[in-house]
Amino acid sequence: MLRECREHGYFRGEDCPICGEEGKFLASERELDNIGRLMAGVLRHFPERFGLDMDEHGWIDMREFITAVQMRRRDFHWLRPHHIHAVIETDPKGRYQFKNGAIRATYGHSFEVDLELPSDDIPDKLFYPTTEEEVDILLETGIRPSDRKKVHLSKTYNDAEIAGKHRVENPIILSVDTKYAQDKGITIQKAGKTVYITDTIPAEYIKKAEK
Known about the structure:
alpha+beta, Arc Repressor Mutant, subunit A, 6 helices
């Protein structure tokens, strides 16, 4: 559930995690899930389906986004700018950004986009989930993008495990020596609270991780 506390801003859940107040209702759990799915689809994969123009850095005008959604999806007739702000500010993974009246996804795109994300203060080690069938291939040939344009790495072992469970019940986690990789000229960027992206990770920087 999406709510707004007068003192502490937007939050997800029944009560404000800081003061315990119920706050103002903004969206149900189902509505919140539907907004998130729609934002992910439009901002990562198909802005053209909604007649929206995206610049080379992935930005779309927020009011144009809302208008386009309202015109094509009657079930979103209630959508307003503060709902989008609330989704962005409370997203646990930091998947979206708002700036100068525009919104964008910070990772997960299926087309080329220059996100201009920060590449400093990258952890010395990041993690990547895979499967029993793929692990030996990745250890031999390296990690390359599949259905996305970038390789997505996780901040911690647990983050990678959670991401991997979307594919298999018991993912195998690889450890990436990002310090060594960056020393050799590979650019890694921070894309969310727990997600980092890069073009490719050669095999020499990868090994099986220990929990």
